[in-house]
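Q: I'm writing up a methods section and want to include an example of the input and output format. Could you take the sequence below and give the corresponding predicted structure tokens, formatted cleanly so I can copy it straight into the document?
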Amino acid sequence: MNIQISNISHLFCSMETTIVSRLLSKLKEEYPSEQPLGSYISKELQFESILQLLPGKNDEHRPAIYSTTLSVLYTHKNIRNFIENQFNLHEFHIQCNDRVGILLPNGTELGLCLLATCSYYASSYLSDITYLGYYSLSMVIFGSIFKLLTFINLCQPAFRNTNARPTIHYMRVLALIDLFAMYGWNLDNYLGLVQGFTFYSSYTVASCKVFSFFNYFTNETSAWLHVFICFDRYLFLSRTQPNTWFNRSKSVLIIIGCVIGVFILANLHFLIFVCYEDDNEKINTGSKFYQVFPLYNQIYAFISSVIPSVVMMTFSCVSAYYLRQLRQTSTIQNSKIRHRAISITLISTSLLFVITSAPTPIFYGFFYDDLSKTALGRRVLNIFDTLSYTYPIIDFPIYLITFTEFRRELIRLLIRNRAISPIITENTQRPAPQNRAQNISTAHNF
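A: Here is the clean output for your methods example:
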């Protein structure tokens, strides 16, 4: 027991006073003194007089007094939820039990231990909290604009002949899937770090179910659509007669429907069995019927990262080899030359997907417990989170740079929309000369 108490003292010493004082200020703002709970908080926060009675410098004792006061407040359910949402640690209780392991006789975690562990884990990365949150929000905003532009542009007349280029189906669906995916973990990252709540773990049970399903479904679907894009390019570039079953328009639609259907069924258990409200009226992201995490995160890492990455890299490397061979063209290969630009674009975006999005599920699925215990490990997780949040805005510039037809149609789309009003004005101002010309012509004929 003495060893455990010394662990708590060590955790208290590692805390930053500014972090705790900032949380105390937020508590005062959240619960004004005129409210019953606010009056209770104000009474407990009257510790400045205690500091004056302590020997030595007040700053030396301030962290312990602040933290002890918070540990008292932590025993209240509403305040406990507020504190945990502010720090946004989903495995808050688990980390505390693993690190210190103190339990009260009634089986509940000791508030002092929980608060100390929370402060210990939060102190090293709270300086980055605002940056990462607003960075995620900016990615959602710009990514939404880019994905909408991509989808609208791919629906223009130049890309409507999907019998000649069925790969356009993949590109359109991917634009929509990636657009929806940004409103999952990307948006929740901003809400959790800046606003203090997430749709996934701390809003309602319904939002927990929907966003759990939504996050895993969109990312798995996106990964496997990229796999079939790479497979499509491999078949098209490696065969003398590329018109196989997989390269036909209806077949591509069937493949897309099957991919979406499979991952809807694979993640349907989130909507039915996962997420519930526990005895403390807190949202639990697990299940009452079976253990979901960490096993599902490891399965998810294989389904959305390991297997798709290996397959994509294999097909992309072989396709890149055949692209180089197209420099010595023949009459039979002329059709492939016309598809060279779109092939370069799709292979580039797939490789970019592997680099930016694949590592994050792997690290969270297999190395999260070890990485989250050190400051360097948490920085590594932050770096890969940032990479995965950045992908939705990177593929749009690649489309513009490598896909000439896409760039040309986008410019036409933007210029045409800007030129609509002048054209209308010009047409409305010139009916009289037109009518006069018609009258003159009619009179001449007579």
